[in-house]
Design goal:
36% of the residues lie in helices and 17% in strands. Helix 17 packs across helix 18 and helix 19 packs across helix 20. It is built from 20 helices and 20 strands. Mean pLDDT is 91; it is low at 501-520.
């Protein structure tokens, strides 16, 4: 009898119930929330699991021993000798490891490398409800992923589906597919890092019910190496889609992604637009969100999905939030969720903290936290939503140029308060494009002092009718633990500065996962 090759053995692992998982020697690279979920899943399947990581939290290391996995604390900046000797059958890499990482590059050459999404797709049949394995709805984009994922999940739930929002949103997909009660649909937020390692052909390729790339702008260039590589990773979201590839009508890059995608025969391209929708799209007619895609007489009729008043009630009335609602509605309609259920979900929805969140109003000045604007594209949407802005900007730009953003909005702002350890790009851009706009640098290096100083400077220049807007256009981890930490400190500094004169309360943060597009 011929012994199966490693490749043939791995190709056969397309079910939780496959026998080939037992005894499989697997190296897991990284021990964040995703890495732990990978290790926990593989141990449950009977594989021999070793996790390799340098900065793993002690509580997770202890849990590895409890579940029966080995742990090796070592740097992955060079290939560990013990890993080479171990010669694992499979390597599962956490999404934070860039393609340039030496250990990951070694694994690609000498073993087989999967990401957590491929593993989750292969074992998605652990718990099967009467309707069969839960279909997946995939969501990516430079900005708006989390809100759109939450909206889509809420719409499916309103339609009676047991729906889970998972992936880059903070709940590992592997935790969801192993839930003993099972789900009717998984709404999966995907980072560009997760998409990079996701195959589009072969036994590990995801076949989604519906998919979307909400928008595309340069981001994470230091990880991907180029804008083209980042774009190619995002485009993978559309591969093998069954019902609807949902794209942004005003973002040409997303339309081209759909045109180039290999999809299941009969899949449709559905655009979402802030204007009047063409037949086959969703959009806005006067103050009504309309569906001209998922009805028979789409040339002559439309279905009402929600009204502007519904969006205002839910805090979704800004232009970029409206686009998120339209994209989510198209994804939900692809699963036959009714317009009435979509409207119900919109009315009951509230966005997460740090997304153009009103912190306080005092003396005619609005204080708004959009700490989630971690790149220029996100900050563009935020700045476009307000007039008479005192702009708090800066942080870690991840290889992305802030010049165009300052050229567009810099001349219009009341003043700019510049934070971050490297303020030079922002200062230089203002010198070129808005030299007359008052600039204040926050020189404090202590994390505890950054936001109190920024708030004091902003308050000194703000006038009644102004909005003090935290829209950094940059990642936070040069001075803060995360974008949420940055936003929380901003809100606390605002309330401390205003004392009892403000309307509004400080926000409590909701937990999220550790995956890379969480926008730190």
């Amino acid at each position: 009898m011929t012994r199966p090759t490693r490749a043939s053995r791995l190709d056969g692992l397309t079910s939780w119930h496959a026998t080939g998982w037992r005894g499989l020697r697997v190296a897991v690279l990284g021990l964040g929330a995703t890495g732990f979920s990978v290790a926990d899943t593989l141990v449950e399947l009977g594989s021999e699991v070793t996790v390799w990581s340098e900065d793993a939290p002690e509580d997770r290391v202890e849990l590895l021993g409890v579940i029966g996995a080995r742990f090796v604390r070592t740097s992955l900046a060079t290939v560990p000798d013990e890993l080479v000797v171990a010669a694992p059958d499979l390597v599962v890499a956490s999404p934070g490891l860039p393609p340039s990482n030496p250990t990951l590059a070694w694994a690609v050459e000498h073993s087989t490398v999967w990401g957590d999404i491929e593993l989750a797709w292969r074992v998605r049949d652990k718990v099967v409800r009467p309707s069969g394995p839960a279909p997946w709805v995939l969501i990516t984009g430079t900005n708006g992923k989390t809100t759109t994922t939450q909206l889509t999940q809420a719409m499916y739930a309103a339609g009676g589906w047991r729906a889970a929002a998972c992936g880059n949103i903070g709940v590992p997909v592997l935790d969801v597919v192993r839930d003993p009660d099972g789900y009717d649909v998984l709404v999966v937020e995907l980072s560009s890092h997760q998409l990079h390692s996701m195959p589009t052909t072969g036994p590990g390729a995801v076949v989604p019910l519906a998919s979307t790339c909400l928008n595309l702008a340069d981001d994470h260039l230091e990880w991907h190496g180029s804008a083209a590589a980042y774009r190619d990773a995002k485009a993978k979201v559309y591969a093998n889609t069954v019902v609807a590839c949902v794209y942004n009508v005003v973002d040409e890059a997303t339309r081209r992604m759909v045109e180039d995608a290999d999809v299941v025969e009969g899949c449709r391209a559905v655009g979402f637009t802030p204007g009047v929708p063409a037949p086959g799209d969703v959009g806005v007619v006067e103050d009504v969100l309309c569906d001209r895609a998922f009805l028979d007489d789409r040339r002559n009729a439309a279905l009402e999905l929600a009204a502007q008043a519904d969006l205002e009630l839910a805090g979704l009335a800004s232009p970029h939030m409206t686009m998120n609602v339209l994209a989510a509605a198209a994804l939900a309609r692809a699963g036959d969720v009714t317009p009435a259920d979509i409207r119900q979900a919109v009315r009951g929805f509230r966005p997460d903290h740090h997304r153009t969140e009103l912190v306080a109003v005092a003396d005619g000045v609005r204080w708004v936290d959009d700490s989630k604007a971690t790149n220029p594209h996100a900050a563009t949407a935020s700045l476009a939503a307000f007039e008479d802005v005192v702009w708090i900007v800066g942080g870690l730009f991840k290889g992305v140029d802030v010049d165009d953003l300052v050229a567009r909005f810099g001349p219009e702002v009341r003043a700019a308060v510049v934070i971050g350890t490297d303020r030079a790009p922002v200062l230089a851009a203002f010198a070129r494009h808005a030299p007359d706009v008052p600039l204040v640098e926050v020189l404090a290096s202590d994390t505890e002092q950054v936001m109190p100083e920024a708030v004091r400077h902003a308050a000194a220049v703000a006038r009644p009718g102004d909005t003090v807007l935290l829209a950094p256009a940059a990642a936070s981890f040069d001075q803060f633990g995360s974008y949420a930490d940055r936003g929380r400190r901003f809100a606390a500094a605002v309330h401390e500065h205003l004392g009892g004169d403000a309307d509004g309360e400080p926000a409590d943060d909701r937990p999220h996962g550790d995956d890379p597009d969480r926008g730190r």
